[in-house]
Design goal:
single chain; 342 residues; mainly beta; 8-stranded mixed β-sheet; 1 helix; 28 strands
């Protein structure tokens, strides 16, 4: 790892959102706004927005098509504050519908095909174009684009497809694999069988790896498999570059091509958060006081949304904000086991 300057330090701000596994989800935009789920006193979950230390309760999507649809999860937010996600019942991820929160109100959208079992909106760009997936009656996932109130299918082959991100120019990324939705809804990113794709201006490019995020330059972040292990990878013009040579996954990439994700330190059985750039390489940004941590997103300001388990056993979301006087200093990746530490 190259030496870090003072500007590479970070403030660590705990966030009041409930863990992903308890529903809620999370998303971060380029203005530093975070959305997620908060627990109410009656045990229900509401969506909330956090900005500059202020938490605003957004409520819940209307119970459509029935009041049983009352468990929301967030997956995306654009720079205008429009939020997308899914709302399902206590039965689990299906049946479900996708929703949009915009200008102070929720809209629950119909399925792409009325015979489908559920839907989730995953990404939204600043033009209001949304990508996501439907879960069909034959138990397949089918990715889609929603623009100006109209669904469009994607020119992607495969028995199962997902659409996960869309940038400002409308370039879409996603994966092709069976049973993706279960991993998505449990927050697990272990998908060694996934194969990614990029759709740009109607042309599809297939990747030798899997992807989770895209920036406005069309660079995508995800992973590829080497000797049975997933390794964090950046894809540019179809070319895969492994950026962390340890078991790892990349889940976010910003306009400067800074990448975040998690890696498995040598000799440890817990994940650590990393950030990578072409100029500095990869370094560990696991906050002090956390036994494990991983990234969820990075924005163009360099803010990093993450979550992990504290030394006391609490599962916690947090925001890392670049600050020359911050208390968190980047560390070298752990590439060799330490005695007595796992």
């Amino acid at each position: 790892m190259n030496s870090s300057s003072a500007a590479d330090r970070y403030d660590v701000t705990p966030l009041p959102f409930i863990p992903f596994s308890g529903t809620g989800g999370e998303a971060l935009n380029n203005n530093g706004v975070v959305v997620g789920g908060i627990a109410n006193s009656d045990g229900s979950v509401s969506l909330a927005e956090w900005s500059k230390g202020v938490l605003t309760n957004l409520g819940v999507p209307p119970g459509l098509p029935s009041p049983d649809f009352n468990a929301p999860r967030v997956f995306g937010i654009n720079d205008l504050g429009a939020v997308v996600g899914t709302v399902h019942t206590s039965a689990g991820e299906i049946p479900s519908r996708w929703f949009m929160y915009e200008r102070g109100r929720f809209s629950v959208l119909p399925l792409a095909d009325p015979t489908n079992l559920g839907a989730a909106a995953i990404g939204i760009n600043n033009r209001g174009e949304v990508v996501g997936l439907d879960y069909t009656s034959s138990k397949r996932e089918v990715g889609w684009l929603w623009s100006n109130g109209v669904y469009s299918s994607l020119p992607v082959s495969g028995s199962s497809t997902t659409a996960l991100g869309i940038n400002s120019s409308g370039t879409i990324i996603g994966n092709r694999r069976l049973r993706f939705i279960r991993r998505l809804f449990t927050g697990q990113l272990r998908c060694k069988g996934d194969r990614g794709y990029v759709v740009s201006r109607g042309t599809t490019q297939y990747l030798n790896g899997f992807v989770y995020a895209i920036n406005d330059s069309g660079e995508a972040a995800g992973g590829s498999i080497s000797e049975g292990q997933g390794m964090a990878t950046v894809f540019k013009n179809g070319i895969a570059t492994v950026i962390v040579s340890l078991p790892s996954y990349a889940v976010g990439i910003n306009s400067a091509a800074s990448v975040v994700g998690y890696y498995q330190p040598a000799g440890y059985n817990r994940r650590h958060l990393f950030r990578w750039s072409a100029s500095s390489g990869a370094f560990d940004l696991t906050p002090d006081g956390y036994r494990s941590a991983e990234a969820a997103a990075i924005n163009d300001r360099g803010d990093i949304l993450g979550y992990g388990e504290t030394e006391s056993g609490k599962f916690q979301y947090f925001l890392l904000t670049p600050d020359p006087n911050g208390g968190l200093t980047p560390k070298a990746l752990i590439t060799a086991p330490s005695a007595g530490v796992r």
